[in-house]
Design brief:
This protein is of the alpha+beta class. The protein contains three helices and three strands. It has one domain.
Protein backbone atom coordinates (compact mmCIF):
# COMPACT_ATOMS: atom_id res chain seq x y z
CA UNK A 1 0.00 0.00 0.00
CA UNK A 2 1.35 3.41 -0.97
CA UNK A 3 1.72 6.22 1.57
CA UNK A 4 -0.65 8.48 -0.37
CA UNK A 5 -3.30 5.77 -0.52
CA UNK A 6 -3.14 5.37 3.23
CA UNK A 7 -2.75 9.00 4.36
CA UNK A 8 -3.93 11.05 1.39
CA UNK A 9 -2.20 14.36 0.69
CA UNK A 10 -0.92 14.90 4.24
CA UNK A 11 2.68 15.00 2.92
CA UNK A 12 1.80 18.33 1.28
CA UNK A 13 1.97 19.87 4.79
CA UNK A 14 5.76 19.81 4.35
CA UNK A 15 5.37 22.62 1.80
CA UNK A 16 3.09 24.89 3.86
CA UNK A 17 4.56 28.32 4.56
CA UNK A 18 4.22 29.11 8.24
CA UNK A 19 3.29 32.52 9.60
CA UNK A 20 5.95 33.30 12.25
CA UNK A 21 3.72 35.67 14.26
CA UNK A 22 0.90 33.13 14.30
CA UNK A 23 3.25 30.35 15.35
CA UNK A 24 4.72 32.46 18.18
CA UNK A 25 1.21 33.26 19.41
CA UNK A 26 0.19 29.61 19.32
CA UNK A 27 3.30 28.53 21.23
CA UNK A 28 2.69 31.19 23.87
CA UNK A 29 -0.74 29.80 24.78
CA UNK A 30 0.01 26.09 24.25
CA UNK A 31 -0.21 23.91 27.38
CA UNK A 32 1.97 20.84 26.76
CA UNK A 33 0.60 19.02 29.79
CA UNK A 34 -2.98 19.01 28.53
CA UNK A 35 -2.06 19.31 24.83
CA UNK A 36 -4.42 22.21 24.23
CA UNK A 37 -4.47 26.01 24.18
CA UNK A 38 -5.23 27.83 27.44
CA UNK A 39 -6.66 31.35 27.48
CA UNK A 40 -7.43 32.83 30.92
CA UNK A 41 -7.79 29.35 32.43
CA UNK A 42 -10.13 28.23 29.61
CA UNK A 43 -8.92 25.24 27.59
CA UNK A 44 -9.45 25.36 23.83
CA UNK A 45 -8.67 22.68 21.28
CA UNK A 46 -8.61 23.30 17.53
CA UNK A 47 -10.92 21.29 15.32
CA UNK A 48 -9.95 19.94 11.91
CA UNK A 49 -11.68 22.83 10.12
CA UNK A 50 -9.58 25.34 12.08
CA UNK A 51 -6.36 23.46 11.31
CA UNK A 52 -7.43 23.48 7.67
CA UNK A 53 -7.75 27.27 7.79
CA UNK A 54 -4.43 27.77 9.59
CA UNK A 55 -2.51 25.52 7.21
CA UNK A 56 -4.42 26.59 4.08
CA UNK A 57 -4.98 22.90 3.45
CA UNK A 58 -8.23 21.13 2.60
CA UNK A 59 -8.65 18.06 4.80
CA UNK A 60 -11.30 16.35 2.70
CA UNK A 61 -11.10 13.01 4.41
CA UNK A 62 -10.29 13.40 8.13
CA UNK A 63 -9.88 9.63 8.45
CA UNK A 64 -6.74 9.78 6.28
CA UNK A 65 -5.01 12.05 8.77
CA UNK A 66 -2.17 10.40 10.68
CA UNK A 67 -3.26 10.33 14.34
CA UNK A 68 -0.81 9.74 17.16
Amino acid sequence: MRFQDKYGDIAQLLFVKLDDALLKGMVRFWDPTYRCFTFNEVDMVLIIKEYSTLFHYDFRDPFKICWK
